[in-house]
Amino acid sequence: MLAVAMMLGVNIIKKNGVTFARTGNVMLMAKLLDQQIGIDYLEETCPDRPLPICGSLRDLELIASDAKLNHLPIGTVSDKFLWEGPLESLGGMSAVTTYASEINRGTIKMYPFQFIKKCFSGFFSQLMHFELGDYLIKYDETSFVYSVIKQIFKENIFHDYLMSRQYLKILDLNLFKSVSNIFLGLSAFVVVIYVFFKNNKRSAVVKLAATICIGILLNAFVTGGLSAVHDRYGSRVIWLITLLGLFIFSEFLKGRYSDLSNAINIK
């Protein structure tokens, strides 16, 4: 509750309104563009309401057409709009946020069922994306990450980055992904068996399992439904299932150790 109050308070003080994120409306607009309905809305309204983004409508149509033609994943259009030039050419987040809410309201009002359908499509897709290594890629001279490392860190650290496996593109994550997924599968199996056969459905571990599952579902809906679909959005929370599996396994070992100790004491 304190964290929520602080997030809202910062934006109220800065007079951005009662909102968690000052530019959250831009992120939602990018999602609507990715869903195609945002582009459809602009095609309908731009002739009568020439907002600044209307000048980039043709470019957005080409990005969306390319994503559809090449069967690119959900979020491709929004990511390209946000991080690969179009948004910056419109003046950045601060400029677009002044009219993004208008586009969001108009789009959802015009295409309510398509919006809901696309949100659930993103939700189900995000549930399947949770592998390690998302964005562990080579950040070259043109990237923000490269420039920050070069400017802020010492020369020897920058040299280490240039010699790193990630930068040289020889970082093999397949083993880590395989091990992670195996442990995840085993943990999920343990959790299901435990919850199904546990006599006391109100135990702390069962409640924790329910909380984690609900949290993972909500995370998938918020990220996949209202943003792009990325493995990192899932991997941030999916490890909780493995942690829960370890809790259950440790409880099992504790019970076995207790039974063994009792048997020894009796003898």
Describe the structure.
With 267 residues, this protein is mainly α. The chain is 73% helix and 0% strand. It is built from 14 helices and no strands. It has helices at 2-13, 24-34, 37-45, 57-69, 76-83, 86-89, 93-110, 112-127, 144-152, 155-162, 165-168, 174-197, 204-226, 231-266. It is globular and about 85 Å long. The protein starts with a helix and ends with a helix.
SSE arrangement:
Layout: H1 2-13, H2 24-34, H3 37-45, H4 57-69, H5 76-83, H6 86-89, H7 93-110, H8 112-127, H9 144-152, H10 155-162, H11 165-168, H12 174-197, H13 204-226, H14 231-266
Helix pairs in contact: 2-3, 2-5, 2-7, 3-7, 4-5, 7-8, 8-13, 12-14, 13-14
What is this structure, in a nutshell?
With 267 residues, this protein is mostly helical.
Q: In total, how many beta strands?
A: 0
Q: What kind of sheet is the major sheet?
A: none
Number of helices: 14
Chain-averaged pLDDT: 89
Give unreliable regions as ranges: none
Query: How does the helix and strand content classify structurally?
Result: mainly alpha
Q: Whole-number radius of gyration? A: 24 Å
